[in-house]
Amino acid sequence: MIDVNIEILNLNDDGFHPLVEVVLFNQTFKAVIDTGASRTVLDKAAIENHVDGTTLLVSDKLSTGLGTNSMESYTLSLAQIQIGDLIIHHLEVAVLDLSTINTAYETLSVTPVIGVIGGDILVQYNAIINYPLKKISFSYE
């Protein structure tokens, strides 16, 4: 079992977002843990400085959510993403414009996030979120 500390962000008494530190491109970022997201998503603007534009593949799917009915999406094959001691190699993620989330975070004086950890990782690694202990646990079982 791998335990990773999380931060519970209070959205001015309008709900909560659990945040976790992730390592991508040899840098540490924060990401939202989203049990309602089917896939892990990275913010297009946040990753543009770290990837060659030719590595982003236009997706044939239009993504819904995040306040819109549809938005252009891309996919990116990550060589590695690390969440605590959990290291995942060769993960395909969606890449979308997450500016609405980061703009909302700016109004709360919260550092922008690089993306959303979604169900693809949460299910594959049997994630358990423990809110009282502010931890997320992963296992390979």
From TrEMBL:
Keywords linked to the UniProt accession: Hydrolase, Protease
Claim: Protease is one of the keywords in the record: yes
GO terms for MF: aspartic-type endopeptidase activity
InterPro entries according to UniProt: Aspartic_peptidase_AS, Peptidase_aspartic_dom_sf, Retropepsin-like_bacterial
Source species, domain of life: Bacteria
GO biological process, one term: proteolysis
Pfam families: Asp_protease_2
CDD domains membership: retropepsin_like_bacteria
Keyword flag Heme: no
Protein name, as recorded: Aspartyl protease
Protein source organism: Arcticibacter pallidicorallinus
